[in-house]
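Worked example
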Amino acid sequence: MDENIEQQIKEMIVERLFLKISPEDIENDKGLIDTYGIDSFNIMEIVVGLEELYGISFKPKEFKLSYFKTIGSIAEFVRARKQ
């Protein structure tokens, strides 16, 4: 399951944000804000999705926008939290 985290995150983002792009077309290292138009409201939706999908929680002190730059950075954060 661990190697599929990126794919799961992509599917969750496309579903929650109603993106008109398929999960397979989202690149792991492309900036979500610059490339896909993700804004701060969308990031909060992603946070809720990650909490539901992986049972992890974000404490306000731990929240950094840098975690949400790319699919890869989100997956790295999820892997670290799941350990």
Observations:
- The two ends are 14 Å apart (CA to CA).
- The mean pLDDT is 92.
- The helical segments are 5-17, 32-36, 40-54, 71-82.
